[in-house]
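Hello forum,

I keep getting stuck at the same step: I have a sequence, I want structure tokens, and every attempt I make locally crashes halfway through. Rather than fight my setup again tonight, could one of you with a working pipeline run this one for me? It's a single chain of 486 residues.
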Amino acid sequence: MMLLKDILYKVNINSVIGSTSIKINKIEFDSRKILENDLFVAIKGNNVDGNKFISQVIKKGAKVILCQQIPEDIKKGVTYVKVKDIRETLSLVCSNYYDNPSKKLKLVGITGTNGKTTTSNLMFQLFNLFNYKVGLISTNKIIIGDKKIESSHTTPDPLTLNKVLNEMVESKVEFCFMEVSSHAIKQKRISGLNFKAGVFTNLSHDHLDYHKTFSEYRDIKKFFFDSLDTNSLAIVNIDDNNGNYMVQNCRARIYKYALKSNADYSLKIFEKDFDGMKMKINGSEVWTSLIGNFNAYNILATYSLAKNFDFKEEEILNNVSRFKTVEGRFEKISKNKSNKIGIVDYAHSPDSIQNILQTLNDLKQKSLLITVLGCGGDRDAEKRPLMGKIAASLSDRVVFTSDNPRFEDPKLIIEQMEAGVEKKDLYKVSSIVDRKKAIKFACEINSGNDVILVAGKGHEKYQINGKNKIDFDDKKILEEFLINNN
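Reply #2:
Ran it on my machine without issues. Output:
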């Protein structure tokens, strides 16, 4: 247990009713999990208002209520703390409760529209190869040393986040690589965390259902770099138009990487095929089994970070050559002694689908490129016609289908994708709502040596339709129809 006054360290408090010298069992923002002597953080979310459950949690034994508005019904023996910013407060009290674990290891945050998952996973791989005990917090999973935990959010809530970081500290983890989403920055899930480094991958059209404008989305990302202190590193991709903007007010030591621009760290690809790429990083040759310019940027970001931790050049490059493909990120499916090639990728934004299709067009030679693509429901609708246009223009055939329709009609989502297709490309388009049937159809129209891309879901092992979450694995289904049944 911990004293409330210690939990409230650095919190911007407006007023207090009751004692701050009482002992707290644990912190909760979910009323269903409240036990005797707990602290309840009353957050007003998009769907649920925690303030409506204050009376309920007090009956269950909560002894402290953190809120932005003191309720009218004050209960004796309960401490009420009114704060200026409830979301920031949640992050700060969670850090304090777990004794600020982010200060006890080297925390590296990776942010950007695309490449966060691959870059964080590559950094995890590299530092693991250097025999450091490492942790990972990513869209795919959370890893604490040898322990793996399924992940449902790109960046977890502050309570989960600090609990995981604390477990890493207890497990003697030295470096943790964490994806930092724009939602997490705006919702202040990372407030109070101490980042040793921040990495910017790129910025393009995405999440505008949440951020409303691109400039707001961009500035939320920039806030992450504004918050880095002078003891931190900022590593940014300046081939992206927003790279230099990200670090305009940054106090951290700034290092820049690029494939096209003059930068501290550079990379050039001079050979590539479906087996990998041969590159020069800062003038030194290295081969990788990863494919595509987008992966070259991810590799270069990882190399740039390692250089700033003073690893030897030869050892970095040797370990880069040992990188393995990240699950659901340009993951290749092929059969020995066969020309059949399938690719499963998480690409779900206009920029990411364009990058992967351009890469595949560069590699496929005389083969045709068949793309299976959907767009998620209850998400940014503006990108649907853009993605439809890009997919049709850069593919030889394209099959529009469901992604995670959630509470939208998948037929209407597909119609929005179709609306973006140029007239000259309409003949390429087929639309099949059932995603499994769409993948099967793509395999059936494969002439035998065509390339099939199944995009949008990547590593996900489910499909969300309304309230139902069913088992669905693009990789297994593509293997079934492309490899096993042909």
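DSSP finds 16 helices and 26 strands in the chain. If your local run keeps crashing, start a new thread with the error log.
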